[in-house]
Model the fold of this input.
Amino acid sequence: MANLVRVKLADETHRLPHPFRPNTDFPADGLIVDAEDPVWMQLLGDGSLILETPDEAPAVTPAKRKEKN
Done:
């Protein structure tokens, strides 16, 4: 089972190529990743990425449902 966590760059001025998206940088505002994936584990372990604390995470607004007529 995936261990999804929100991570961000440890140094916001750092440019980190996204490991799974060619020609794309890791987003500066963070991303939800699987912390058990070896690639993300390595980036978390070497300090390139850090876990976001709950007060830093952007607010999530619930999706609006369409009413059935």
